[in-house]
Specification:
With about 170 residues, the protein is mainly alpha-helical. The protein is about 45% helix and about 10% strand. The strands form two sheets. Strands 1-2 form a two-stranded antiparallel ribbon.
């Protein structure tokens, strides 16, 4: 793709080819800053339009996929149910055939906690059914550093970098 020129009221922006890096720009007065803000607003709008178009196409693709898979999944269920019935008539846990194997796998017991407070009251520390997870309290550590000026062992204080935000209308 060739070089592109974007014209604002006061400045023509000549952009390099897409394969080239963008040069650093020098903004020396408020009218140039205004032109850059207008150009920035334009490019953000263009990016938004591309994202909206892509999202519409993605949604269409998802609907197409769901329609295709709906039919296929019905056919999969049809064949699987027939094979499950066949396995049950054989009275075995496994049947090996040329094109595959049909197995019945016994379900495993699992625990589901649906009332934590009731379990906590039941255990009361006597059965060891409740474990206590230890993890650092970063807010408390920061409060300690600010109050005492002391950095606890095993802790680093990382200062975040300043960032900039440019808003267009």
């Amino acid at each position: 793709m060739g070089a592109l020129t974007l014209q604002t009221e006061s400045i023509d922006f000549d952009y390099p080819n897409d394969s080239e890096d963008m040069p650093l720009v020098s903004v020396s007065d408020s009218s140039q800053a205004e032109a850059h803000l207008k150009a920035l607003d334009y490019w953000r709008y263009e990016a938004e339009q591309i994202n909206e178009h892509a999202e519409k196409q993605i949604e269409r693709a998802k609907q197409w996929r769901e329609g295709q898979l709906s039919t296929i999944n019905k056919r999969i269920n049809y064949h699987e149910s027939g094979l499950i019935a066949f396995l049950q008539t054989q009275g075995k846990k496994t049947v090996k055939l040329i094109n595959g194997t049909i197995k019945r796998i016994a379900g495993r017991d699992r625990v589901e906690v649906n009332d934590f407070d009731a379990l906590l009251a039941y255990d009361q520390g006597k059965c060891g059914l409740i474990r206590t997870k230890q993890e650092p309290d970063k807010k408390a550590i920061m409060d300690h550093i600010k109050a005492s000026g002391e950095l606890p062992n095993g802790v680093d204080l990382v200062t975040g970098e300043d960032s900039f935000k440019v808003e267009t209308l």
